[in-house]
Design a protein that fits this description.
Oligomer: homodimer
Largest sheet of chain A: 7 strands, mixed
Order of helices and strands of chain A: EHHEHEHEEEEEEEHHHEEHEEH
Shape of chain A: globular
Bound molecules: pyridoxal-5'-phosphate, magnesium ion
Number of domains of chain A: 2
Largest interface: A-B, 74 and 74 residues
EC number (chains A, B): 2.6.1.52
GO molecular function (chains A, B): O-phospho-L-serine:2-oxoglutarate aminotransferase activity; pyridoxal phosphate binding
Subcellular location (chains A, B): Cytoplasm
Number of helices of chain A: 9
CATH class of the largest domain in chain A: Alpha Beta
Structural class of chain A: alpha/beta
CATH architecture of the largest domain in chain A: 3-Layer(aba) Sandwich
Pfam family, one (chains A, B): Aminotran_5
Cofactor (chains A, B): pyridoxal 5'-phosphate
Strand order of the largest sheet of chain A: 2-10-9-8-5-3-4
Distance between the termini of chain A: 41 Å
Strand content of chain A: 15-25%
């Protein structure tokens, strides 16, 4: 087996712990002596029940999820939840949105198709380089919920405080920051995430939902598969779930527990991000694009201010084994995604490379 | 790496070609020298484009798919298509259904939520042990389409002829017979399949759809993700697709090409199924439950006529390394699913075991 691994700064699908991949490779033809691959297992088998139940238990432990929240393993990507959320929650057919980038906007647009969706705050005025003040939001009286994208993958911002929703249910897309640090689950009605950034292979979306929000009272025409109650009642086995993806997520949960859980990850991620942000702050060539107080620990966008120089940097970085540093196709520049599985060494080496590049190109 | 493999007769997720699993294991940490796993690759990368485009091209070649059909790689399982089909096709809000078991019935029930769904034929009167005569169906004048489940996974029936829909669009769920033999794609408006039976790991559903059926004119409230046009316009990359599953499907397509394509598979599958059906037909203990003319090549249900004997058989078979022979939880008895990847040897050994069991228990 070849083992030349690059440093992969992809925003998602993204780097996974090497240990997890090695185990998966070893178990590919014969999972724990059962004579078959996890890909080949009936989702109704004892073996697979153990896998999904252990995954759920480990996630509950890591995130400290209270008993009155359900954990659903779903398909369809975060984008399917853009529809599922209004379909399941819009009893008054109204919801409030805070727009911090493309993902919140997409969720907002989809919700607008099902009811009245209000933008109550936005950072679009400054190209989403900050998180709006959420201490005194203009919450709509009839809003069924308030929606946020907790970490914007593209612009590299993160909420540092839970928005004050004045008692309304808070729904958060945590796709790109999940499990990077502790959150208080009780502050949220729904936390959901596509796993393909910080947890596993694309094709699984996990929703952590307060029990009382899972009801039969959904919008007419809600597809049975998008109704949370269908999935909750069947413990995520209403139909065939994305078994192999769930298995890999389970391994990542175990790996996180071995790392010391989310407090330890927070510390580790803060250290890692600091290496890069400190460099950006003193560099004369590179600069971060987000206001300091709202910087993401996971996605670090930066620019040189010169498109040609940006392109040269991305190209030379790639040649040196630093992959996927190009910014999102809609914004340009660079972006280093430094998720849980990115080793500190990867960030150190990147900064070394940036220093050298700056030296050579000044 | 341990290599003790059982004979896995699971109805899905199901056995995959050992060769494919071995390759996947070898490439797990480093796909073709690119330094990362396919699980870690951006879905917008050149590497992944090659994977999905090659998979599509190979599927087109295998099935001989005409140019005026799109191939979509989707998420959400076959069950999500139970909603997507009426949402995308019900222009007159009416459709006809032929009920041959639980899967057609579920699709029918879901469609009934969006328009007038008519049952125009059914084999429920005889516990779905046959395929209704479809030579002169009572097609509804305003039906937007006629829906069938081409191979019933649970009851083990298969259409031997394409139903005469009198010019109406035919939509077929081929989840459990796809790629087991050639079909004439042009006879169908839509062919779709969850890949977890005959192609790959659960979490990918493939839809082959005639271009003119992919329109903006969908039912109001159709989730953006369930609108086929969203996915067709974006070449299955509207959002993050289930990349790793698609990669495995691609490998299975390549494997099928190496086996000689679908004509060769048909011959192989007929030989394999004959071994088991011939035994059932002469056995005094075991008998197949489906009328001879409508037997599936893929799913072979059988019974002893005695529940206790059935249970004893399933238990002893398991001990002897034949896994997942228990019938579907809703019907009981036994079922051997003998998909493409089940080697002939597996069926031969099973029949040997059944002979011995009959001898010992008569
Ligand atoms: C924060 C966030 N939300 C949602 C999405 C969309 O996820 P998916 O591609 O699974 O639909 C993305 C990702 O790509 C994202 O970064
Ligand atoms: C013929 C058929 N259609 C549909 C389904 C449902 O597929 P899924 O579990 O992917 O929703 C199944 C399977 O389990 C099946 O056998
Ligand atoms: Mg956003
Ligand atoms: Mg600077
Ligand atoms: Mg059926
Ligand atoms: Mg007999």
């Amino acid at each position: 087996m070849k083992m030349a691994r690059v440093y992969n700064f992809s925003a998602g699908p993204a780097v996974l712990p090497e240990e997890v991949l090695k185990e998966a490779a070893e178990e590919m033809l014969d999972y724990k002596g059962c004579g078959m691959s996890v890909m080949e297992m009936s989702h109704r088998s004892k073996m697979f029940s153990d896998i999904i139940e252990t995954a759920e238990a480990d996630l509950r432990e890591l995130m400290n999820i209270p008993d009155n929240y359900k954990v659903l393993f779903l398909q369809g990507g975060a984008s399917s939840q853009f529809s599922a959320i209004p379909m399941n929650l819009m009893k008054n057919k109204e919801a409030d949105f805070i727009i911090t980038g493309q993902w919140a906007k997409k969720a907002y647009k989809e919700a607008s198709r099902y009811g009245k969706a209000n933008i109550i705050a936005s950072s679009e005025d400054k190209t989403f380089t900050y998180i709006p003040d959420c201490s005194d939001l203009n919450i709509s009286e009839n809003a069924d919920y308030v929606y946020v994208c907790y970490n914007n993958t593209i612009y590299g911002t993160k909420y540092q405080q839970v928005p004050d929703t004045k008692g309304k249910i808070l729904v958060a897309d945590m796709s790109s920051c999940i499990l990077s640090e502790p959150v208080n689950v009780e502050d949220f009605g729904v936390i959901y995430f596509g796993v393909q950034k910080n947890v596993g292979p694309a094709g699984v979306v996990v929703a952590v939902i307060r029990e009382d929000l899972i009801t039969d009272d959904v919008l007419p025409g809600t597809p049975t598969m998008l109704k949370w109650k269908t999935q909750a009642d069947a413990k995520s086995l209403y139909n065939t779930p994305p078994c192999y993806g769930i298995y890999i997520c389970g391994k990542v949960f175990q790996w996180l527990k071995k790392q010391g859980g989310l407090e330890a990850m927070k510390k580790h991620n803060e250290e890692k991000a600091k290496i890069l942000y400190d460099f950006l702050d003193q560099s004369e060539m590179f600069k971060g694009t987000v206001v300091k107080e709202d910087r993401s620990l996971m996605n670090v966008p930066f620019v040189t201010g010169d498109d040609e120089m940006d392109a040269k940097f991305v190209k030379e970085a790639k040649e040196a084994g630093f992959e996927n540093l190009k910014g999102h196709r809609t914004v340009g520049g660079m972006r280093a995604s430094i998720y849980n599985a990115m080793p500190k060494e990867g960030v150190e080496k990147l900064v070394e490379f940036m220093k050298k590049f700056e030296e050579e190109n000044k």
